[in-house]
Design goal:
Number of domains: 3
Bound molecules: zinc ion
Distance between the termini: 60 Å
Number of strands: 18
Shape: flat
Radius of gyration: 30 Å
Helix content: 40-55%
């Protein structure tokens, strides 16, 4: 926009942005501010990317364009639609405006009702059928059992015989039966980057449970369980159960209803839950520096009469998949406790010596670190927005093609649904990114709060779970490094509010750096 304005020789530009407001609503704050300025005669030219940016209501938009703007000598340009109220022809504009309005109102509703009709007819509309079925080559809305159907049948059989989901997962893995996910990857090229795809037999409790609880295997289709709120708000919500569409006998059942019901009762029974070890005061906080997965805690039996070891951590991915995926990242609970305790005490004593100076220092360190993150979030936001407007343009073109009969209604429904889905996903991500960016602004204030908080712990001798979770956001463990006779291990401690304040240069942190490299093995 800015470039366009510059090229056209317009100076003194102002930008009006109503992000997060729908074009069907004219009570957008920036839009109202703009109209106010127009009415005061302060606006010479208004430039929008396309007409729909002004609004998606034909009468309102036309009123501004044909009455308000000319009255105040405001020139109006819509770049992509070739509209310029000064000079060139704009007979096409009213038509475009009608199109935009139809488009906004209609297309989402039509897409929805088409899906509902298909669901009521018992037609399958999902992208990838459940494990054990494939789409009928004669009719893509009909499911037929595939080569995995016998496996599904066997899983139900095992469950009826009283095997737990965990035992079923282990059996399948031992027999090297590919998981549902591995199959999707082969068949549709999905999840190629997912490490689970490289371990095609790694069945989990969850993947078994998902299959055993899916009513599709009794030969019925349950659809319309989820919907988005409206065509303006794409968040997914679950419909009330009486609105679900359940159609019986739409395809061949792999299990009879009675068996299915029995299995539901069996798998609902809570497995004796693996007792979380109360010694692990760092629960959920420790991560592997190389693969990003949580470290798992284990306290081994030392043998008869000797009790349990105090406990140690190692990389969760290494533990699940072995050395091919990550290395061990072994550290004991005792080592970690000592390290964290010392670090907290170092910070506490620095804070109590000169709290202001310490807080200032923390703030400056964290800013440096966050600037990188912030820039990457901003970049991603821009990329998302660019793609969203591309998709908007594509969808609009499709809609026009449909109105002019270039493509059929059915084809339109199929094509637009994909683009709609991508676009709504991107919009969600944009919101998420915005929240992250907002959180940065409030963080610098928090350095001061942290200094006040940590100051209280100058004399602590023992860590408690509560203390650890109050102060620490996460701890990242790097792999051991062997140099000459000394083995060291880097451990980054990220404090709440202020992030990782170690590992960076700065006078107050010398003590910490020294102490980190002093962990010997
Ligand atoms: Zn790892």
């Amino acid at each position: 926009m800015e470039r366009y304005a510059r090229e056209q020789g317009f100076t003194n530009c102002q930008f009006f942005v109503d992000d997060g407001y729908s074009g069907t609503n004219y009570n957008r704050p920036d839009f109202q501010r703009l109209i106010g300025l127009v009415e005061e005669g302060k606006v010479a030219v208004i430039i929008v990317k396309d007409l729909s940016r002004l609004g998606r209501n034909y009468l309102q938009t036309g009123y501004y364009r044909e009455v308000v703007f000319p009255e105040h000598d405001t020139r109006f340009i819509a770049i992509n639609d070739n509209v310029d109220t000064y000079g060139s022809d704009n007979e096409f504009a009213p038509f475009k405006e009608i199109m935009d309005e139809w488009y906004a109102k209609d297309c989402s509703r039509k897409t929805r009702s088409a899906y509902r009709t298909k669901a009521l007819k018992g037609e399958y509309t999902g992208p990838h059928p459940a494990y054990g079925y494939r789409k009928d080559p004669q009719d893509r809305h009909h499911l037929i059992p595939d080569e995995h159907a016998p496996i599904v049948k066997r899983m139900f059989q095992m469950a009826v015989e009283g095997k737990t989901v965990c035992q079923i997962a282990k059996t399948l893995e031992a027999e090297q039966i590919p998981t549902a996910r591995a199959y999707l990857m082969d068949e549709y090229g999905k999840y190629k980057t997912d490490e689970r795809a490289r371990h095609p037999y790694a069945w989990t409790k969850r993947s078994v449970y998902q299959i055993l609880s899916n009513p599709i295997y009794t030969g019925k289709l349950v659809s319309q369980r989820f919907t988005s709120r409206s065509f303006k708000d794409k968040r997914i919500i679950e419909r009330p159960e009486d609105e679900w569409v359940i159609i019986e006998n739409t395809h061949e059942a792999l299990v009879d209803q009675e068996t299915f019901d029995t299995v539901q009762l069996r798998i609902q029974v809570k497995q004796p839950f693996h007792q979380e070890n109360p010694k692990n005061i760092f629960r959920g906080l420790i991560f592997c520096a190389d693969c990003g997965v949580r470290l798992v805690f284990r306290a081994r039996n030392k043998g008869k009469g000797k009790g349990r070891s105090p406990g140690e951590f190692s990389c969760g991915k290494y533990r699940r998949y072995g050395g091919g995926e990550c290395s061990c990242h072994y550290i004991t609970l005792v080592q970690l406790k000592e390290l964290v305790l010392q670090d907290i005490r170092t910070h506490a004593s620095l804070a109590s010596t000169d709290r202001d100076k310490y807080a200032e220092h923390l703030a400056s360190l964290s800013e440096r670190e966050w600037n990188g993150e912030r820039a990457s979030y901003q970049k991603e936001t821009e990329q998302c927005q660019r793609r969203i407007s591309e998709l908007d343009a594509i969808l609009k073109k499709l809609y026009e093609d449909r109105v002019f009969g270039v493509i059929s209604d059915d084809r339109y429904v199929v094509l637009s649904a994909d683009y709609e889905a991508e676009s709504s996903k991107l919009k969600d991500r944009c919101k998420e990114l915005q929240n992250l960016l907002d959180s940065f602004t409030k963080r610098s204030r928090e350095a001061r709060d942290f200094a006040a908080l940590v100051e209280q712990y100058t004399d602590i001798t023992e860590l408690t779970e509560e203390l650890v979770h109050t102060l620490i956001e996460k701890i990242v463990v790097h792999e051991k490094m062997v140099a000459d006779t000394e083995t060291t291990m880097r451990v980054d401690i990220y404090y709440r509010f202020v992030g990782n304040v170690g590992g960076l240069d700065g006078e107050v942190l010398k003590a910490k750096k020294h102490q980190m490299s002093a962990v010997n093995f």
